[in-house]
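Fold sample X.
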Amino acid sequence: MAERRPMGALEAQVLEVLWSTDEARTPAQVLASLDTELAYTTVMTILTRLWEKGLATRVKQGRAYAYEATVSEADLAAARMSRELERSSDRMATMGRFVDGLDADEARQLLALLRQMEQ
């Protein structure tokens, strides 16, 4: 399988539509949910790319396919964060900068998660 290209803004918008429902969506339904003037074929291309990247599944629905996200928003974000951490030559400094950017409530939540992991 070819290496995945990074996700673009349009792919992110389409994924947000897929995450907003528990049902598979056709390209026409996705297009109707987007606040943009994209062409139907553009939405079809984006959905096909998401399917090829393994970020969506598809099932035949009439003459079209209906698509559903295979990964949650949280799982996708966590995978991205892990990839960035792997790319860093100084993982501790990278994690430190990330933690420095958290507000007090987020820092408390992170600490609680770390304590749960220790148990």
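Fold sample Y, listed below.
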Amino acid sequence: MVEDARPANESAPPRAAVGFLRGLSGKLLLLTIVFVMLAEVLIFVPSVANMRIRWLEDRLNTVAAAAVVVDGLQNIELPRAVQRETLMATGTKAIVIRRKDASRMIATVDMPPAIDGEYDIANFTALGAIRDAFDTLLFGGKRVMRVYGPLGESDATIELVMKDGSLRNAMLVYSRNVFLLSIVISLITAALIFLAINRMLIVPIKRLTASMQEFSDEPSSPERVLVPPKGGDELAVAGQHLASMQRELQKTLKQQKSLAELGLAVSKINHDMRNILSSAQLISDRLSDVDDPVVKRFAPTLLRTIDRAVGYTQEVLSYGRTAEAEPRRRFVALRPLVQDVGELLAVDRQSGIEFDVQIRDDIMVDADGEQLFRVVHNICRNAVQALTNHQPEDGRPRMISVSAVRTGSVVTISIEDTGPGMPAKARENLFTAFRGSARSGGTGLGLAIARELVLAHGGTIALVEKPTPGTLFRIELPDRPVRLDAFRAKGRS
């Protein structure tokens, strides 16, 4: 059984927040209220300035109606008592009608107050009106202001002096009403937006989050896989991808569990196999002392084969301990190594398969000889299996060709056969263990091992397309970079 490799002191993954205000729903509701209130503030600023202008215009129009009547009575001055009643009714301190040639005081108090500010209703700017409105709203109430504007359609101007207390009170009432109305609008808008977005976003997100948490608790259970939602929006697509990823992860976990159990069994078997091969190695050493030409011919090959088998068993045990051996690189003659592969595979003319080695004797490869042998052996063994019971249709011989060329610091090795070629299914998972086999019953480990060893040398391996039937693998192995001090020491020696 595969155990959880997470350290005991590692904290568990965080669970979903249960607090309303800490969750997306609460944050969404608060942000909606804040943004609606901000919009109301942006609306309130010009509207309160406009309310102030309208209020002053209404006061001027009211005063102008009374002033026109009095102005029609030429050379008659209103009694002081009537003036006080008029000023009290209009909430002003003085009323004046001005014309180009003359001005007439309609009503005034005994001692006109000092003026704190003047405002022309007919001529103002938007920014100026906003500035004056907030000045009155924040600092007004006891100041005296002079307000004037046109008197109807005539060329006369109506002017009045008044305190701004009534104006400020009216503006405060207006601001309070706007504020209360903004609160109501914000709550209604936030509730509607919250309900809509909560249904479209928050609920599906919570469902995805709950599925991920449940799947992480028990990833091997098929019941933990999310049932993908229907639809084509982003969240539905995310749910479909999550469900697909969970299914693939379950397959991977199941496969890795099987591989772990298989690896344990192989390690046990390999341990006993190593002991058997060690005994065979001791016995084979004595063959070199036998004075027989046939024995002397095959004894070196047999000894090398057993040595390699012992080395493989040791590497399998090391791999089981997750301690992959690093390549022990040195310059190796490539031609004898490839010839040993042919002898080990027993590829000769009697087998009906030709093994053609097109490699010059002077080509040296900077590599681990045993690992490079395994790479070439795995690829050539696959070629032998492909050529067995297969006859090329164009009458060509069944042949495996191995060639190599050095270009600068890179050696390119080509391994070609005249077999049936690689099936399309095998090409899709070419270097994947247990999935890249080209024949029934194969494991696909050979190419996976070859690729891993080539990558450990900093090289590349690839299947090359060719116009004729068969397969062609190309391996490129670079030399190790030379350190400058080592190069100089070699030059001095």
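Sample Y note: Residues 1-13 have pLDDT under 50 and may be disordered.
Also: Residues 326-492 form a domain with the Heat Shock Protein 90 fold (CATH 3.30.565.10).
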